[in-house]
Amino acid sequence: MSNSDGKPRRAAVAANDRPGDTAVDMERIRAAVREVLLAVGEDPDREGLRETPDRVARMYAEMFSGLRRDPREPLRKTFTQKYDEMVLVKDIGFESMCEHHLLPFIGKAHVGYLPKGKIVGLSKLARAVERLARRPQVQERMTEELADLLMEELDARGVGVILEASHTCMTIRGIRKAHSICTTSAMRGAFRTNESTRAELMALVYGSR
Ligand SMILES: [Zn+2]
Predict the structure, then answer these.
(1) CATH 3.30.1130.10 region(s) of the chain?
(2) How far is ligand 1, taken at its centre, from the CA of residue 109, in Å?
(3) Is 89 helix (H, G, I), strand (E, B) or coil?
(4) Residue 131: helix, strand or coil by DSSP?
(5) Which residues contact 120 (CB under 8 A, 6 or more apart)?
(6) In the annotation, is 179 catalytic?
(7) 167 is an active site residue
(8) What's the pTM value of the predicted model, to 2 decimals?
(9) Which of 127, 133, 182, 184 is the most exposed place for a label (fewest CB within 10 A)?
(10) What is the Å distance from ligand 1's center to 78 Cα?
(11) Ligand 1 center from residue 39 Cα (angstroms)
(12) Which whole-number Å values give the CA distances from 132 to 94, 121, 147, 200, in the listed order?
């Protein structure tokens, strides 16, 4: 499956892991933030705000650094291993930015897969999550993208992804439900077709809570 919007995937441009990449037009963000401050009736030249446009530009460069990094790239280094039971990494923390409000949503990912002769370093799963998170995102799409790219890159028998996040666009504005958590899941392969496999994943993720 391709991205849910049907557009081709963005190719990797920069391979470095530096937050705050030069590909971002910092001057443009600075000018825009200054406009926002003026628009709400603030004085962007008063002392407390003078550095704000630059700080915000650097923050956006970091929060959106995943746009120029291929989330598949960390998954390409796999190991041949005769292990065909479930691999599960729980509680992979992530910080993303809701593309509707440009407000953060913060949570954790639980990623399970059933290998078919190939396994991947556990930290690489976290890196793929981070690259998908650090861009304007919606949680539903991030969940599906993660499941699909793991399925493809690991050639797995099945992939199960569960994301739980608190969306500040719901907690600090609008409906203001401070403790609401949004849970999304995407099941592929055996996790989709086999109920007991899916039940095992759910028990491992939620069982001990
Ligand atoms: Zn939002």
Answers:
(1) 78-206
(2) 19
(3) strand
(4) helix
(5) 75, 77, 78, 79, 153, 154
(6) no
(7) yes
(8) 0.85
(9) 182
(10) 35
(11) 21
(12) 9, 17, 11, 26
Please tell me the predicted confidence (pLDDT) of residue 23. Answer: 81
Q: How many Å lie between the centroid of ligand 1 and the Cα of residue 171?
A: 10
Residues of the chain under the 50 pLDDT cut: 1-17, 19-21
Is 98 an annotated catalytic residue?
yes
Question: Among 139, 144, 145, 200, which one carries the catalytic annotation?
Answer: 139
Give the C-alpha separation, 143 to 200, whole Å: 19
**126 and 163 Cβ atoms separated by less than 8 Å:** no
Q: Which residue has the tokens 């391979």?
A: 15
Report pLDDT digits (tens) over 57-93: 999 999 999 999 999 999 999 999 888 899 999 999 9
Calculate how far, in angstroms, residue 60's C-alpha sits from the geometric centre of ligand 1: 16
- 158 forms bridges with which residues in the sheet? 114, 189
Q: Which backbone phi and psi does 185 adopt, to 5 degrees?
A: -145, 150
Annotated catalytic residue 139:
yes
Q: Judging by beta carbons within 10 Å of its beta carbon (0-12, 13-18, 19+), is residue 208 exposed, middle or buried?
A: exposed
Contact 134, 67 (CB under 8 A): yes
Which residue of the set 98, 110, 137, 153 is catalytic?
98
Task: Say how far residue 150 (Cα) sits from the centre of its chain.
Answer: 13
Q: Is 89 buried (19+), middle (13-18) or exposed (0-12) by CB count in 10 A?
A: middle
H helical segments located in 64-194: 122-133, 139-154, 168-171, 190-193
Compute the residue count for the chain: 209
The top-level CATH class assigned to 78-206 is: alpha beta
Identity at 88, one-letter amino acid code:
L
